[in-house]
Design goal:
This protein is an alpha/beta fold. It is built from eleven helices and twelve strands. The strands form three sheets. A seven-stranded mixed beta sheet has the order 3-2-1-4-7-9-8, sandwiched between helices. A three-stranded mixed beta sheet has the order 10-11-12, with no helix packed on it. A two-stranded antiparallel sheet has the order 5-6. Helix 1 links the parallel strand 1 and strand 2.
Amino acid sequence: MFEPIWYLKDIKQDKPVKVFTIFSCGGGSSMGYKRAGFEVIGNCEIDPRMNSVYVANNHPKYNYNMDVREFLQKDDLPEELYNLDILDASPPCSAFSSCGEREDAWGKEKVFREGQKAQTLDDLFFVYLNVVEKLKPRCTIAENVVGLVNGNARGYVNQIIKRYHELGYEVQLFQLNSALMEVPQSRPRVFFVANRMGYPKLSLKFNYKPIKFGDIRSKEPGNEPGKDSVTYKLLQIAKNSDKKLADVNKRIGKKASMFNKTIVWDGDIAPTQTAGTVPFRGCDKTFFTIHDIKTVQSFPQDYNFVNNTVNNAAYICGMSVPPNMMAHIATEVWKQWLSKDKEIIERMGV
C-alpha cells in the first residue's frame, strides 16, 4: 500500500482530517499523515535547526519554534487548533531508551541535542497531555520507545493512562514494529492512541513482508572509512554473521568494543536507524549513502535535509517516526474511526 520509494511531490490530501504535531522533529509522522491523505496544519518544535528542515519540507500553516511548555502558555492560538481531529506527538525518548541512562537520568535537567538547551525529558509526555487538555482534539496519537513500557518505566505508563482518563479519553497501547509496516527497518515502537468521541476499540495488526536491505539500497557505494583506521581493517574481515564491528573484534579474540558500529548485509532487515551513527553496508564495506538512510526510514526521495550530508540525514531520520509506519496507523484510524464520524462525513459533503 505504501512503497518505501516515494516522493513528497506526489502526496494528495483527499480526506477532511486536520492534524497538528508536537515535537515534530523532521516531520516523519507529518509525512505519514499526509501519505494517508490527511492535512497537517502545523507543528511545534524546540530545535531551530530541526524546525527549519521541517518547514522546508512540510510548509506548515502554523509553525511554533519553541518549547512545548511555552506553546502551552500561549493565549492567542488560532481557532483552528481548537478543532483538531488528531493531535500528534513524539515526546523525546532518550530518558526511556534501553540504550540510555534510563532511571539515572529521570528528573534531572540536562543539555540534550533536542533543542540545545537544558531541560528534563521524562515529564514531556505529561506536558503533551496538558496540551491535549487545552486543545481537546478528537483523537491523539503519541509515539515512544518500547523502553517506556519496560521495567520501572511502567509506573510512568500507569500515570499516563490515568491522566488520559482524567481528560475524558479512552486510550489504547500498541507495540508495533516498522519492519511489518512497509518500512525497510526493524524499529519497535509504542503508540498511545486515544479518543474522546466514544469510538469502538481500534484494531492495529500489520504483517507486511519485511523488506531486505539488498532490495532497496543504492547501487552506488557510500564513503569509505580511512584506510589506516581500525574500522576499515575490521570491515575487510567482516563476515555475514557479524552484525557489528564488536562481533568482528570478538571473533578474532579482541575486546568486543564498537557496539554502535552496525554492519547491514543485503539479506538483512536493517536495524533501527539511530540519530548518532551511520551504519556500514556489508556488500562493499562502505558507509550508508543518503539514499540508503532515506529509504531505510521510508523518507521521501525528494526530502531536503537542508544540510545534505550523510551524518545530518542519519540524525534527522533517527529522530523521526518512519512515515510509512504512521501512514498505516493513520489509514486504520480513518477506516475504523474518522470515516464513520458524522461531523467529518458532513465536511466531505456526503
